[in-house]
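We include the entry.

. . .
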Amino acid sequence: MLLATPIHSRLRRLRRAVSWALARLRPGPSTVAAALGCLLVGLVCGTTAAGGPRRTGGEVAPDWTGAWSVSSQRLSTGWNPPTGRGRSPRTVPAPSPVPSPVPSSVPSPGPSSVPSPVPSPGPSSRPSPGTTGPTGRPATRPAAPEPFPVDATLRMLVRPTLGGSAVRIRLANTFGEGPVTFAAVGVAVAAGTGPALEPETSRAVTFGGSQTVTVPAGGRVLSDPVALALRYGQDLVVDLGVSRHQVTVTGHASAGFPCLAAQGNQVGEGTGAPFTTRLSSWLWLEAVDVVRDPGVGDAVVVLGDSLADGRRSGPAFDRRWTDLLAARLNRLPAEQRHAVLNQGVAGNRVLRAATCCGANDAALTRLGRDALTQAGTGTVIIAVGVNDVRDGASAGSVIAGLSQLAAQARAAGLRTVGVTLTPFGCDLGCPGAEVESVRAEVNAWIRSGEAYDGVIDADRILRDPERPDRLLSAYDCGDHLHLNDAGNAAMAAGVDLAVLDGTAGGDRAVR
């Protein structure tokens, strides 16, 4: 193990292990000794505090890492807003008999093979009545939800940002008002870009050995490992057979990949023809993990707003800057490769919950749930704050909030990368000089590197050099705030990859 893992990858994991240990030990003479013990064990066994290789019974356990994830929101099953980015399912032939899904799983690495609620970051991860968290459907949602069968199968396509030799999925009922029961769950490799799947790759997904699982209100559950090899660039089909659910559900409001529904149990159906009801949200599916190849780097989580979520970024979710960054990384040698987990959500703010664009928690509330509990994570990119400044927050309050995000991530043993706030000025009806001065003050603080291990200067990458309070017109989708495809490409190309693995600090000089 010592020789098989690149030295910089081992050191990065050891740094997390020691940080994790120090954060949990009481101060005293034993603290240093315990930290040195972590260091020695890590050098010999490759131990990591967050999902890396572990030795169990003399064998190295699978090295799980997050490969795809979304930020959960409170949704209604009747709310499916048009996103303008979804790909229409291709025409498929009439159904033909296909083999039933064959249960197949790899040996369990230990306790994670049972249906295990994912550790909660604390009570703040689920807003209670009377807090500033989301409390219902915005007025823009339809008064009456459209029909959504109780006994139905959801088929959702996702594109993991890293390949692997096995997969597992996480389901969430974070905002549900009651339990949700999944009578059957399956995964498969997609056949092209539509709802059809490759029948020979169809696998049943189990939870503690059972094909049925009930997730309580506020709960999350991790599946057993499934032996399914997946290459980067392949889409994964996830089928959820829903036998009981509530009107208020947990999901992500804008899914750019096909999300469809069919009546009855269609888990593992090969052609995709029964899936005639189109949805525009991912429902209940929160994450996909893979067993990464030896030497591959830790996952990178992007905690962001609509600029990360890809609002107005084109007809498919693979055009977001995070997806293009993942494509860059997957062309590199294994030790420079990282999964990129997009935890962007439209309207998100550092300090307060949002009720637009699908209600979502403030970044300070959702950090633990959306970033710190992702498997195999080594770096958190903090890309929020624009909406706070647009809404009139002071520079001091935004800086304090961003500092707290960075401190919490570091306390969990993760590297932190700050992202400067991009321009949002325009000709008429936009924030004036006072708000622009707040943005400039926050950006100067981010560039200083005071709270971060590295910096991505998105402002420098995307602004108009002649009018620094505005996006470059070539990158502007038309609303002077969000990026078009060219803007997303520029952002992805402008990221110094050394920032992601700690070999450089990025854009720290004020420009």
Notes: The chain has eleven helices and 22 strands. The first helix runs from residue 7 to 24. The chain has three domains: 7-49, 64-90+97-287, 295-501. Residues 163 and 231 are 4 Å apart (CA to CA).
